[in-house]
Fold these 3 entries.
Entry 1:
Amino acid sequence: MPVVVEPEEHGDERGALLAYLRAQRGAVRRALHGLTEEQARSAPSASAISLSGVLKHLTFVEELWLRVFVDDPLPDEEKKRLREASFTPGPDETVEHLLERSERAAAELEKAALAQPSLDDTFVIPPAPWFEGGRYSWRWGLLHLIEEYARHAGHADIVRETIDGKVAFDLVFETGAMPEPDWSRGA
């Protein structure tokens, strides 16, 4: 586990879910720490994804799901166009721009999640070729976002390590996300 997620207040399920979502967002953002724009856009592994592309994609996913959660879905054609471009940053989409957009999307989603009366409240997911759609809880939605971020955080770890050999723990300590432990104390 690259960062310690503090325990929630007893009974604060929403706080726990948002804390884990923040931890996964942080993992993806830290993977970009200290890289040049060229490095952030590079795809040095067997995959065609770059770290900038992972961040852009996850921000798109978070923005898209928030719209689904609050019943303001994108038209299918626009959603398809944005999804197809979601892993490819445009010329003006610098790391700084992508990080700012990601922070705005995260703040909007968290505000909506905190304003929701209950995680049992539901939203409708429209059908897709790979999915029947249906009614799902906010709890399910937040868990799905944690899953999506966690999967891509793993991709980001591999891409970053391929770029310069830095692993998640190196970046956690470098960015101050967690102080480096006293390894001499043992487990």
Note: Strands lie at 122-125, 134-137.
Entry 2:
Amino acid sequence: MTTADMWFDPKCPWAWNASRWLLEVERVRDVEVRFHVMSLWLLNEGREGLEAWYERWLADTLGPVRVLIAAEQKYGTPVLRDLYTAFGNRIHHEKATIGRDLYLGALTELGLAEELADAAESTGYDEALRVSHRAGLDPVGEDLGTPAIHVTGPDGTVNAFFGPVVSPVPRAEAAGRLWDGVLNVSGTPGFFELKRGRTESPRVS
């Protein structure tokens, strides 16, 4: 069994696509996926020169990750799989406004404590958020953001990388083939980058 740990910010559409791809990979490869929280708000904290549209986009991203961290502390890391899905469906498919109603809807759907929604306005979870954030990004080697994935092989070695950035989500065996290719290139000693310009906005699915 191979373990794939993915760090996500729930608002990022590229992370959403990567997470749905990993769930497809579970179906066709001997892989177990675990989800963890990072924050694009933290990633860009203190940075100068951000484009105005991106600053506006980041403005409501801290609340959701605080709620996710609070839920993880109360119920354990496995809760993030379904709670991320509940958040992501609302954000990316229903185009719901990020805020208390979204948090309450997702928590209620899963039978989780509604008071966790209060965490969105609390700084009390920020240190745990920073720890989770750094655990995901530090091994990648650069502040590249999400999706950040760590793959632990049978011998315990960890292969950490950013990506893949993919749209639309590969399904079934196509997801497996992409997985095989990603592991081949990212696991090659001395391999650092493979990239091409994006020609479209993400198509979430």
Note: The mean pLDDT is 95.
Entry 3:
Amino acid sequence: MANATELLPGSRTEDDGSAVVRVLSYNIRSLRDDTAALARVIGACAPDLVLVQEAPRFFRWRKKLARLAAASGLVVLTGGATAAGPAILCSLRATVERTEDVLLPLTPGLHRRGFATAVVRFGGARLGVLSCHLSLQSDERYVQGGLLLDRIAAMGVEHVVAGGDLNERPGGRTFRRLAEGLQDCWETAPWGGEHTSTPADPRRRIDAVFASPGIEVLGCGVPLGTPGVSEEDLRAATDHLPVLAALRVPAA
């Protein structure tokens, strides 16, 4: 694994009301791996928002997700079983306006999918947030990409961040569909590592953070070399590497 050459900007609110927000997208594989390592990685990234995929969905899932959030210095904002896996964690810096968990149409024989969504404020900046985990099946995934864009448009918020496990590389048609209307944050301001799968031998970028055009992307990538984020923990935590982005969101 290559190391990040410099640290991403820290969270802050500017005098004009705009805000620098740190967003982490992470597939946590239903907490089936080393949860202590996972919490250390999340905490060391110092995120304001965590877009979770494969959150616990079954027995005592709320308690398990809450324990992870607390161990990472965060709270659960929304999602989990109610969104079929995606969830959002946040720091106490966020002021929450509303949340909504969305179940997507079920294709017989395939897993149920959904979106965890919220609208939050950081200082004078208002931000729509969406966490997703798209289908393994190409046609269903493409439809879900369109539903994601529709959901973002329906939020009624000028600035939006969306991210998750796309189960597709940047050249795929669903990935391209999302990148046509949103900024692929890695492409806009690459930082750290690029590939997210698998931690032992990362060769594919199938996890991503997207931002609406009015947001300034200060850097985005796998947080290699970030203080407190060890390669050992990254390998032990889950079967994906996380994507960390620093975004400057204008004041509403």
Note: The mean pLDDT is 96.
